[in-house]
Amino acid sequence: MPLGLIALGAFIAVIIVWNVVFKRNMGEAMLLGFLATALFAAPDVPGAVLSGVRGALDEEVLYAAMAFVFMAYVIDRTGLIQKILTILNSLVGRIRGGPVLVDVVGSAAMGALSGSNSGNTAATGSFTGPWMVRTGWSPERSAVFLAGNGGLGAAMPPSSSMVIMIGFAGSMVTTGQVYLALLCAGLYQVAWRVLLVAYLVRRDGIRRASDDELQPLRRALREGGAALSIVLGAAIPIAITIGPVASFLSTSTPLGGAIDDISILTWIPILVTALALVVGRDELPRGRRAWAEWLTAAMPRFSSIGALLFFAVAASEVLGGLGLAGDVDAILAGLHLGKYVMVLLVGVLIAVVAGPLSSTATLTAVGKVSLLALVSVGVAPVPAVTAILVFASTEGASPPASGSIFVAAGITGARPEKMFLPLLGYYMLPIMLLGCLIAWGALPVIS
Predict the structure, then answer these.
(1) First to last CA, the chain
(2) Which H or E run includes 300?
(3) Which residues contact 248 (CB under 8 A, 6 or more apart)?
(4) Which of 305, 337, 370, 381 is most buried as measured by Cβ atoms within 10 A of its Cβ?
(5) Nearest Cα residue to 395 out of 102, 132, 189, 176
């Protein structure tokens, strides 16, 4: 009896029903899903719960995610992301469709910093969405761009989803390999979005922005150029752990093996947050009471992502104990599916599940199963992990329950139901095809 797979089905069903049908938040859904999964370990349900909790507390992703949440909060509250977007506006605002291109680039940059699709949509869209409408795009088309570009939150490394998949892959991959491969796949996604904008600009007859809507580049750099320094918070840990600089430090300096112990997932949010606090110090609160209110405002963000990740990882531990990997191996051995069919099935599975769930929750639920399925039919581990992460990045464009859709609709005043088919055609299906091409080996990624 495939107990692990049955428990996985129950886990997904409980989450979808609680979140979609009862409209409750994802943290509660994950808690109930975790408890439902633990029930399959009867009669040792308390032992399964304790094992899952211990496993979650040992996961680096939980603490890294909290650091990323605080980092995104600091960047937002200090106004640095708006300054960066203003600079981007000055660079490309005079191009037809410039606001959408700004949203693409801004979403890619914000995605590399925060890793949140819905947060990405809100952070960049609050500025670019109204501008799109002013330059001739309909509210629905503008909202489609915002939600579709928001998926770059999961597409660009690093992200919580990436860490989860690295954990599932174990010794089959390294962090550096997955980081570079996902960065390459993310750039493919950016290229697709740019081509899409170019096509729709011509088809819809969109005009360029007027000069009075833009700041001169020199002024934008003078007023907000310092905000660009927060990029160093991500560049420095990456440079000293991946590539030629890392090789030099490891082989030719006393640092040696210490380089291998540096976690980019820990140090990127630490350094970016530190730089943001220094550069944006004029926007920081003054006085003990103001600081208390400022920090209190961040607490809901922590509670949401913290509960989601904690119970998601705990449930994954329980599923592992119930023999999920063995169940998958047994079923796959009897299917005898070819690589092309298996990749397509995995892509559809992840994209469908990512609709009502977040990319993090989706990969926690089906990431390990998907990886085992792809590796079993001959897909190399790094392309397999990368393709799975690309499939999961359709979260923002997966109707009907994606949070990014409703965030984008709220920003532009669009009707969400009018966004569903364009999101499927312009983002969800092309991105799924992109993931398939990577897994099939037709589209190379650097690793």
Answers:
(1) 39
(2) helix 299-321
(3) none
(4) 370
(5) 189
